[in-house]
From TrEMBL, chain A:
<keyword id="KW-0479">Metal-binding</keyword>
<dbReference type="InterPro" id="IPR019480">
    <property type="entry name" value="Dihydroorotate_DH_Fe-S-bd"/>
</dbReference>
<feature type="binding site">
    <location>
        <position position="220"/>
    </location>
    <ligand>
        <name>[2Fe-2S] cluster</name>
    </ligand>
</feature>
<dbReference type="InterPro" id="IPR008333">
    <property type="entry name" value="Cbr1-like_FAD-bd_dom"/>
</dbReference>
<feature type="binding site">
    <location>
        <begin position="76"/>
        <end position="77"/>
    </location>
    <ligand>
        <name>FAD</name>
    </ligand>
</feature>
<keyword id="KW-0408">Iron</keyword>
<comment type="function">
    <text>Responsible for channeling the electrons from the oxidation of dihydroorotate from the FMN redox center in the PyrD type B subunit to the ultimate electron acceptor NAD(+).</text>
</comment>
<feature type="binding site">
    <location>
        <begin position="52"/>
        <end position="55"/>
    </location>
    <ligand>
        <name>FAD</name>
    </ligand>
</feature>
<comment type="subunit">
    <text>Heterotetramer of 2 PyrK and 2 PyrD type B subunits.</text>
</comment>
UniProtKB/TrEMBL annotation, chain B:
<feature type="binding site">
    <location>
        <position position="99"/>
    </location>
    <ligand>
        <name>FMN</name>
    </ligand>
</feature>
<feature type="binding site">
    <location>
        <begin position="45"/>
        <end position="46"/>
    </location>
    <ligand>
        <name>FMN</name>
    </ligand>
</feature>
<feature type="binding site">
    <location>
        <position position="217"/>
    </location>
    <ligand>
        <name>FMN</name>
    </ligand>
</feature>
<comment type="function">
    <text>Catalyzes the conversion of dihydroorotate to orotate with NAD(+) as electron acceptor.</text>
</comment>
<keyword id="KW-0288">FMN</keyword>
<dbReference type="InterPro" id="IPR001295">
    <property type="entry name" value="Dihydroorotate_DH_CS"/>
</dbReference>
<feature type="binding site">
    <location>
        <position position="45"/>
    </location>
    <ligand>
        <name>substrate</name>
    </ligand>
</feature>
<protein>
    <recommendedName>
        <fullName>Dihydroorotate dehydrogenase</fullName>
        <ecNumber>1.3.-.-</ecNumber>
    </recommendedName>
</protein>
<dbReference type="InterPro" id="IPR012135">
    <property type="entry name" value="Dihydroorotate_DH_1_2"/>
</dbReference>
Length: 257, 303
């Protein structure tokens, strides 16, 4: 159930260059699932006006805390990065349909592929897959070393591989270069990152079950404004899907890439 | 809550607050958040004869205290709206104002004729002001003669009162308002969005794929207030005012300028509970003003 709540800032710190880790506490954490997102109003004024959609990186139902990892790049996220411990933040959520943890076969292996700020939602996913006895292989691509994060946290969950475009950390290149080299054995893959990465993965693993998480400019975040639509591959049923309410996670092959 | 009731052609409103067309879909998303029976009315998303896919993305861009959108009238088409969307809304005790759009006069007439027969559609809102489609829409709303003729054609087939949604993208909005009144319009809704553009800082090119978009949000409120103020003086049919409404004071302002009811648009995206919140806040506003019934403030700017 979608709710609006004034959540409390528990912690906030810059964990990489312009990358912030924000922990909020509130009731709505109890309803959260991996791959879902929250829609945050960063200001009490009209500036900026719209909410900011941010993915969920870690859910702790015991403490009622959710951790978000985001890049402070635009006006909105920069304001969010200035929130102090104890501040209240207007949060709408949880929104969208997350990753399906159940479809991974028990005792099987899942490949998690993330690009840049698409990596965070894969952390909660990896935790929940591990809890179900599913092994995770994690391959993450970043632009450069200074924007990488969570290496230690991911390493405790499964084989973790980093790749950077400039080669400053891990191997040099894109995630697909590394995947070609690693040739991982797996049953299902999950991915979140830029469109070219998602497209490459679909072409890379045409016969594997896969789930992709998309990003698009949003208005309302709940499916009413039709801003964040994507074309589908099959136009017999629906020509467009809404990233916010039909997604952000779609089974491979649904969205036209 | 008796002090908030408003009677308009075709519409018995519990209160003067309704979500604006295009900002509320067909109600399903918000219906999952609160009881839609609380609303005065609902202006559903524009309906065209055929299914429309809308414009390419990006479709929205944020601007200072506002946003630009160029959705492009995406909707499932008349048949599906009649079969699925309107029946679903019947579970709520709320009148529906159906926004009617098209490319030709015949399109408007066809949609109006059929959609006005739906049991919960109590009024039509003729969309002659959408700035985001290449044909139809705004082209009907910028020429007083064309606008009047369209209203006459639709009035001839509609079984419910017809309101006309005016575009602010004209030299003289009063002239258009008078023309649609002469054509037999039962009311006016105003304003639609203002055509605008935002450029990408890096490339210098428009952010929105459509190039231009419609500006909405608090930034447009002074423009809308001025236009409602001027049109109120020139016509005798009621006005449903809108443009940047986000709190109870905005409602008071629009009604003071001459609106009999008020629609809330972009603010629904910022706070999905904004409509019920405004409705709850209105009685205290009336207390502050020493007013017994909200009707008393309609047009008070002019007295």
């Amino acid at each position: 159930m979608i709710q609006q709540e004034r959540m409390i800032v528990v912690r906030q710190s810059e964990i990489a260059h312009h990358i912030f880790e924000l922990t909020l506490q509130g009731q709505i954490v109890q309803d959260m699932n991996p791959g879902q997102f929250v829609h945050i109003r960063v200001s009490e004024t009209f500036e900026p006006l719209l909410r900011r959609p941010i993915s969920i990186a870690n859910i702790d139902k015991e403490t009622g805390e959710v951790t978000l990892i985001y890049r402070a790049e635009g006006r909105g996220t920069k304001l969010l990065s200035q929130k102090q411990v104890g501040d209240e933040v207007d949060v709408l959520g949880p929104l969208g349909n997350g990753f399906s943890v159940e479809t991974a076969p028990e005792g099987g292996t899942a490949l998690l592929v993330g690009g840049g700020i698409g990596v965070p939602p894969l952390y909660e996913l990896a935790k929940q897959l591990n809890a179900r006895g599913i092994r995770t292989i994690q391959v993450f691509g970043f632009a450069t070393e200074e924007v990488t994060f969570y290496e230690e946290q991911f390493s405790t969950l499964g084989d973790t591989h980093f790749v950077t475009v400039d080669g400053t950390k891990g191997t040099k290149g894109f995630v697909t270069d590394l995947l070609e080299e690693l040739k991982p054995e797996f049953d299902v893959f999950y991915a979140c990152g830029p469109m070219p990465m998602l497209r490459a993965l679909e072409q890379f693993y045409p016969n594997k079950e896969g789930y992709l998480s998309f990003e698009e400019r949003m208005g309302c975040g709940i499916g009413a404004c039709f801003a964040c639509v994507c074309k589908t591959t099959d136009s017999t049923d629906k020509d467009y899907v809404k990233v916010c309410s039909d997604g952000p996670v779609f089974p491979k092959g649904v969205v036209q890439l | 809550m008796r002090r908030l009731t408003i009677q308009l052609p075709g519409l018995e409103l519990k209160n003067p607050i309704m979500p604006a067309s295009g900002c509320f879909g067909f109600g399903k998303e918000y219906g999952g958040l609160y009881d839609l029976s609380k609303l005065g009315a609902i202006m559903i998303k524009a309906t065209t004869v055929e299914t429309r896919l809308g414009n390419p993305t990006p479709r929205v861009a944020e601007t200072p205290a506002g946003m630009l959108n160029a959705i492009g009238l995406q909707n499932p088409g008349l048949e599906k709206v009649m079969a699925n969307e309107l029946p679903w809304l019947e579970r709520f005790d709320v009148p529906i104002i159906a926004n009617v759009a098209g490319t030709t006069t015949e399109d408007y007439v066809e949609v109006a004729k059929k959609i006005s027969t739906a049991p919960n559609v109590k009024a039509l809102e003729l969309n002659i002001s959408c700035p985001n489609v290449k044909h139809g829409g705004i082209t009907f709303g910028t020429d007083p003669v064309v606008a009047r003729e369209l209203v006459e054609a639709v009035k001839a087939v509609s079984t419910v009162p017809v309101y006309v949604k005016l575009s602010p993208n004209v030299t003289d909005i009063v002239e258009i308002a008078k023309a649609v009144e002469a054509g037999g319009a039962d009311g006016i809704t105003m304003i639609n969005t203002l055509i605008g553009m935002r450029l990408d800082e890096r490339t210098g090119k428009p952010v929105i794929a459509n190039g231009t978009g419609g500006l909405s949000g608090p930034a447009v409120k002074p423009v809308a207030i001025r236009m409602v103020y001027d049109v109120y003086k020139a016509v005798s049919i009621p006005i449903i005012g809108m443009g940047g409404v986000s709190c109870a004071q905005d409602v008071i302002d629009f009604m003071s300028a001459g609106a009999s009811a008020v629609a809330v648009g972009t603010a629904n995206f910022v706070d999905p509970f904004v409509c019920p919140n405004i409705i709850d806040a209105l009685p205290a506003k009336l207390e502050e003003l020493g007013v017994k019934h909200i009707k008393e403030i309609i047009g008070r700017s002019h007295r």
